[in-house]
Amino acid sequence: MKILQLHCDLVEYQPIKKEIASAEEAPLEQVSVPNSILMLVSVEEGDDESVAKKVAEDAAKTSKQLGCDSFIVYPYAHLSQSLASPKKAMEVLKSTEDALKSLGFKVHHVPFGWNKALSMKVKGHPLAEQSKSYAQASATVKPKEVVSEALKAEDTLRSQWFVIDLDGNLTPVADYNFAKNRHLEKLKNYETAKVRSVQQIPPHVTLMKKLGIADYEPASDPGNVRYYPKGRMIKSLLERYVTQRVLEYGGVEVETPIMYDLEHPSLASYLNRFPARQYLVKSDEKEYFLRFAACFGQFLIAKDIPLTYKQLPLKLYELTRYSFRREKSGELVGLRRLRAFTMPDCHAIVRDMDQAREEFPKRFELSQSVLRNIGFDDGDYELAIRFTEAFYKENRDFIASIIKMHGRPALVEMWKERFFYFVLKWEFNFIDNLDKASALSTDQIDIENAQRYGIQFVDESGAKQTPIILHNSPSGAIERCIFGLLEKQARVQKEGKTPMFPLWLSPTQVRLIPVSQMFVELCESTMNSIEPKGIRVDIDDREESVGKRIRDAEREWVPYVIVLGEKEAARGASTVPVRVRAKGTQLEMSIEELSDEIVRETRGKPASYVPLPKYLSKRPNFESITS
């Protein structure tokens, strides 16, 4: 059990919303408790009644020291990476409260499983703030979490923050006028504060459930989600599209393992250079880690290839399903930040910095184009670029050329010394409805890892040289793209406009609604003339009113809806009334005109089948799972 103990003049809390299904029932009213000891408690795996008794016994000593006999036992899941199940946590918390009461203390119970507003006034004496840890006397010692030196460095890293203009000039953020770019200011605030935890549910979580796309998987590790048919189709199309674009760019696709030896010399060294927490797996008394990127596998392949300058740049590519990072529990939310995610990774092996500067803009342009075609406008994201002071001074014109491709000022993080394996890194950051920034596309100039992994090439003179590696993800994590699209449409909805997916990602592109069962056959013949063109069509043949079926199509964001009845049958359906969601109107169109419009708008994108049975009467209701 982990406890953060605070001696307070006043504590006020109010349950706001249930966070889990098994949350305790509680009144939605503010509670105020004066002069008390607030115990923020994380119950861990293995904690039991014996641990609760230890807590109470220690609390008796604390009470005597502080002259306070009032305790608030406050469930707080953010102090540990090894949390007990909700059921077990509630049992241990109750045991803790009972043990405290048995010693004569006043105990204030705080409901478990809620998002709560919390404020406190902590006393200023030396013992007012204490951190404590308790475990069973016979508890098995758990393996120590592997935390990289780079991640530790991030917590203490002192950066200089600037805004860079299109000419490469740097202005300290404190002196920059953000009046014309509030999103860039939000990115600055997020990055400089370094607070990644989320205190409320972002809109995309509600939408991903309401639209039957994805949901949390309670039987898995937090940060793993399950996808329903519509979500799986959207994710698959995005995966295929990004892969298609990387292969067009010249990527060479490979596939590598998800598990690597923790003691491998190159890998162990790289772990400490990458800012991520790892999952560990034990097999045959050896420890392995789950990959957090495709880097290791691709670097090990590159090491074994006999390369010459003629083959460079070599662009190795893998779509990792999945990469794993043990993010802190307080940072996990919806599709924005996960512990298992799908990352398109394209590493270019280049001969030297000149070739790196030549290749870098191509990948920047590729990333811009990929995001644009996924459904993001250029104004939907802000550029952050990070480099060392020495690299900036030596490459100012090159950096300015990247900013010019972006077309507007960007946020800069600059270091006096190099802490990581790269000298330059950029990210396109989407700002969500909670003003949190999330990186989508990224690229890096890595000057360490070719040496670390023993990657070499033969130059024109026959001498062996060490190359430079570029790390690019043209889209960022696929899950985060879905997050960004949903957050964008939540913003659209808030502005009173009509939300919708890009046409090529819409699970159903055309919905046919027969006025009655008599016209289902007409819908079938219409579907048979549209479907062969690669268009996703379904038929709402349910025994519901036409109005309800139209409203259901609108709730599903169906782009085109056609109601077919007696009038359309009489004229042979030469033209039909098409409800066009994007225009908010109904148009008379021929089926051929509609098909041509859809084919034109989705040209160059991968196609797929309707992810559910074509007849709505035969569909299981996945949306009901999340309601």
What would a concise description of this structure say?
With 627 residues, the protein is of the alpha+beta class.
Question: Care to describe what's here?
Answer:
With about 625 residues, the protein is α+β, with helices and mostly antiparallel strands. The chain folds into three domains: about 1-135, D-tyrosyl-trna(Tyr) Deacylase, Chain: A (3-Layer(bba) Sandwich), CATH 3.50.80.10; about 160-190 and about 200-260 and about 290-485, 2-Layer Sandwich (BirA Bifunctional Protein, domain 2), CATH 3.30.930.10; about 505-625, 3-Layer(aba) Sandwich (Rossmann fold). Helix content is about 30%, strand content about 25%. It is built from 18 helices and 29 strands. It has a ten-stranded mixed sheet with strand order 8-7-19-18-20-21-24-17-16-11, with helices on both faces. Strands 1, 2, 3, 4, 5 and 6 form a six-stranded mixed sheet that branches. Strands 26-25-27-28-29 form a five-stranded mixed sheet, sandwiched between helices. A hairpin with a 4-residue loop joins strand 28 (about 575-580) and strand 29 (about 585-590). Helix 1 packs across helix 2 (about 85-100), helix 6 crosses helix 13 (about 480-495) and helix 9 runs parallel beside helix 11 (about 395-405). The model is unreliable at about 140-145 (pLDDT under 50).
Radius of gyration: 28 Å
The total of beta strands comes to 29
The number of helices is: 18
CATH architectural name of the largest domain: 2-Layer Sandwich
How would you characterize the largest beta sheet?
10 strands, mixed
Q: Low-confidence stretches at least 5 residues in length (pLDDT < 50)?
A: 139-144
Helix vs. strand class: alpha+beta
Helix content: 25-40%
CATH homologous superfamily heading of the largest domain: Bira Bifunctional Protein, Domain 2
Q: Given the C-alpha coordinates, what overall shape results? A: globular
Mean pLDDT across every amino acid position: 91
CATH class of the largest domain: Alpha Beta
Q: Would you tell me which CATH topology of the largest domain applies?
A: BirA Bifunctional Protein, domain 2
